[in-house]
């Protein structure tokens, strides 16, 4: 599928705190992805996986995927294949490019993921643990694919669909931050990691896995990742990284959902870059929301909600992490339960 081109109104901007032209596609830094809310060891790594998940043998998954023939997606952790178990389709993630001595971390992360239960998270159904070269995760199958395919196709989805999906993402991310026994920082919120079921319910994928990713061992043994265009500025500074990195990435995602624009677009020579957060601020400041949503009449007919969403997004992408709201507050603002105050320029 061809990438959507910028229209004439999407001016080229240079970010004040990002040099995106020279950034690698993935970032790995020394931070912990999940935090125990109570005292004690959050990762009982010496224990077997203590869940009700089904443990598959490798051969069972070879058969379920017809020898890994039907590829659904490829990402930082490896390739996802379509399979069938019994009478149901499943998605089988074959983990690759993992940290050394990953077996211990794998058990811990599966334990963490298995204890999450929310309608806006992709459900883990089982796993395979047949040695470090045969680590696989089995998830529910999401028939409508990922949000990027939905947003950036030839036809613009309806405003009602987009706002429904947005609220689903907010609720799933709030659960990860606020309601899990172990707080989970996702670290890579983007459209490709939001999957849609047959009813277009949004479900967050790839949560709880960042500690398994192969990284530059010169800095840390704990990996956190991100994708250019969604990475919070504190990644590049010597300050602590918290759940507010997810809030920043969500703000970028919010702008993508309401505008059907990609977060970053390079010109043909990769010399200049169009940054969606910059455009969002300029359009808001100048009262040109019609430009931002590309004259989407459905969105403009719902101007009060559109304005609120723009303001919330601008709070989420503040350069200063302390100014960003929690996801719980984001829900309240989006649903009109609390007033949204005037946001400052995100990058003073």
From TrEMBL:
Molecular function in Gene Ontology: ATP binding; carbohydrate binding; protein serine/threonine kinase activity
Stored Pfam families: Pkinase
E.C. no: 2.7.11.1
Keywords: ATP-binding, Disulfide bond, EGF-like domain, Glycoprotein, Kinase, Lectin, Membrane, Nucleotide-binding, Receptor, Serine/threonine-protein kinase, Signal, Transferase, Transmembrane, Transmembrane helix
SUPFAM superfamilies named in the record: Protein kinase-like (PK-like) (SSF56112)
Catalyzed reaction equations: L-seryl-[protein] + ATP = O-phospho-L-seryl-[protein] + ADP + H(+); L-threonyl-[protein] + ATP = O-phospho-L-threonyl-[protein] + ADP + H(+)
Stated name of the protein: non-specific serine/threonine protein kinase
Lineage: Eukaryota, Viridiplantae, Streptophyta, Embryophyta, Tracheophyta
